[in-house]
Amino acid sequence: MSQARGATGSAGAGPGGRSGTSPGGAGDGGSGWPGAVGEALSRAGSLGLFFAVDCGPRTDTAGFRPLAGLYGDPAALHGRIRQTARELGTAQQRVAASTLHLGTASRLWSVALGTAALTGRVPDLDPERLWWRRSPGGPLELWLPGPREVSGAPAAAQPAAPPATVRESLPELLHGPLHQTVTVRNLGPLAAAVRRTGGVSPQVLRGNSASALVGALRVLLAAAPETARTAVPLVRGLLDAPPLTGAGTLRTGPDGTLSFHRRSCCLYYRVPGAGVCGDCVLRDRGRGAGD
Predict the structure, then answer these.
(1) Which of 206, 290, 281, 204 is nearest to 243 (CA)?
(2) CA atoms within 13 Å, Cβ hemisphere of 8
(3) Dihedral sign, Cα of residue 89, residue 93, residue 95, residue 100
(4) At what angle do helices 202-223 and 93-119 cross, to 10 degrees?
(5) Could you tell me the CA-to-CA distances from 267 to 198, 270, 281 in Å, in that order?
(6) What is the CA radius of gyration of the chain?
(7) How many angstroms separate the CA atoms of 100 and 113, rounded?
(8) Rounded CA separation 264/242 (Å)
(9) What is the pTM of this model?
(10) More confident residue, 284 or 29
(11) How far is CA 205 from the centre of its chain?
(12) What is the pLDDT of residue 152?
């Protein structure tokens, strides 16, 4: 699925979540903030809306809620799924839940992968500290009041343009922190909540996460092809490790062109007027397989 379709899932659901007092906290950097993490996030944000996260204090905080609220509050998640279904024009809750999951995964992978590949730094996307609000017609709006780097991230002391010896080892060094901040802290809890509330199978959710990761990689390479040496092996490593093992196959052609084939279907083809995604298992099977 493309990031354009993923925007429907990330933006198309209403707040439906717990209320909270928006913080104006401090941290290391952000858009317009000094500090290495802020500069790194700002560079990633220049790649496009899916890669952008606002940082630091702000006066316009209406509608923002901690992302953790979606994972821990069934009523909040159910409200988001219902709103997504209305905007998609479908009565199928499972389709809306899968679309919402894919859109959110696309947003998280884009921010983390883009920042890591461009700068060698991994932002801490702790869902208690990462705030969201609906953005009609676009991807989920994200805000980090106090941005910081993942604790123990290996590239924390490296300059924005690390030496060649460091660049060669970056994919291996970045794998653990990236997996921790996106998969462990966010996509794992989100998938568990979507399974309970939306009835989406683990196979579909794994495929969504893998597809979102590869989608982020495609956009990153189109906008910043110089990141390929770090980004491509980093994504391959993430796809080869649990929980994404077996979710799909990523291939690189002789000219460097990437192709990805997932082993499940995100169900988006069931939306009225929609088609089958480019990486879908249904392109090679009869419809209904891989659900």
Answers:
(1) 206
(2) 20
(3) positive
(4) 40
(5) 13, 6, 11
(6) 18
(7) 20
(8) 16
(9) 0.85
(10) 284
(11) 13
(12) 64
| Residue type at position 256 | G
Alpha-carbon distance values, 51 to 105, 112, 130, 140, 163 (Å): 12, 8, 14, 11, 25
* Calculated CA dihedral for residues 274, 280, 74, 88, nearest 10 degrees: -10
Give the residue carrying structure tokens 């990761």. 213
The DSSP call for residue 227 is G
Q: What is the DSSP letter of 200?
A: -
Which phi and psi (to 5°) does residue 103 adopt? -65, -40
In angstroms, rounded to a whole number, what is the distance separating the alpha carbons of residues 141 and 50?
A: 9
At 77-131, the pLDDT tens digits run: 999 999 999 999 999 999 999 999 999 999 999 999 999 999 999 999 999 999 9
With H, G, I as helix, E, B as strand and everything else as coil, classify residue 8: helix
Give the torsion sign (CA, 45, 192, 101, 281). Answer: positive
Q: How far apart are CA 87 and CA 78, in angstroms?
A: 14
CA distances for 128 relative to 24, 187, 200, angstroms: 14, 14, 24
Tell me the β-bridge partners of 259.
Answer: 251
**Residue 163 β-bridge partners:** none
Q: Are strands 54-55 and 141-144 parallel, antiparallel or unpaired?
A: parallel
81: exposed, middle or buried (Cβ count in 10 Å: 0-12, 13-18, 19+): buried
What is the H or E stretch that residue 65 is in? strand 65-66
Query: Which value, to the nearest 10 degrees, does the dihedral of the CA atoms of residues 181, 245, 277, 233 take?
Result: 70
Instruction: Name the 3-class secondary structure at 228.
Output: helix
**Tokens coding 221:** 């390479």
